[in-house]
Design goal:
203 residues, alpha+beta, 5 helices, 35% helix
Length: 203
């Protein structure tokens, strides 16, 4: 009877030992799982903070808004009907159905406010930065800058809106062909800005 009891106790000990070994192996298998298969959740990050995005504003645009603290890039597709109207008014083909503009913002005084908008237009082999201001809800050209293009030539565009004639003369070393190309490109851009963002015309 004693022998049977001893054997039973030994058998139970072996069974318990095997169960413990299996449990330990299972735990090790769990803890040794490669981290590549795990999803890490950062519980300390605030849920209401938007992820940071890279600033896509070109340096040439930032240069015309020295008082701006931030920029927003706007992208809009120009509807076919508007493209047809712009081409009719300008007498030239719209180069792209995508239109990009950059809005400049200031936070001086604690309030965020828009201080201007700009676009980049290619014409005559040059990149033109067109700076717009808002008058009664409509865009007007405040300034145009372009490396290698005379300021005397570019100042002819200042104050023009989408209803104005673009009879720009060659000046400051800009030849007739380049002057016409730039004038058409600027006219198409301001017509586009008016169609996409401007207040409704009442004429």
């Amino acid at each position: 009877m004693k022998n049977t009891t001893v054997l039973t106790i030994i058998g139970l000990s072996i069974a318990v030992g095997l169960a413990g070994a299996c449990s330990s192996a299972a735990n090790n298998a769990t803890t040794n799982t490669p981290t590549a298969n795990k999803t890490t959740v950062n519980t300390t990050a605030p849920s209401n903070v938007a992820p940071k995005t890279e600033d896509e504003t070109p340096a040439t645009v930032k240069a015309v808004f020295p008082g701006a603290q931030s920029f927003t890039k706007q992208h809009k597709d120009i509807p076919k009907a508007e493209i047809a109207e712009i081409e009719k008014l300008s007498g030239s083909k719209v180069p792209d159905t995508d239109h990009h503009s950059y809005l400049a913002f200031s936070t001086d005084g604690g309030a965020r406010k828009q201080i201007g908008a700009a676009t980049i237009v290619k014409a005559g082999g040059k990149d033109l930065v067109i700076v717009y201001e808002n008058k009664e809800g409509k865009p007007y050209i405040k300034e145009i800058r372009a490396d290698g293009v005379s300021a005397d030539f570019l100042k002819q565009f200042v104050g023009k809106g989408h209803d104005d004639k673009f009879e720009i003369k060659a000046a400051g070393g800009v030849d007739d062909a380049t002057a016409k190309a730039i004038a058409k490109a600027v006219q198409i851009d301001i017509l586009t800005m008016q169609m996409l963002y401007g207040a409704e015309d009442k004429h």
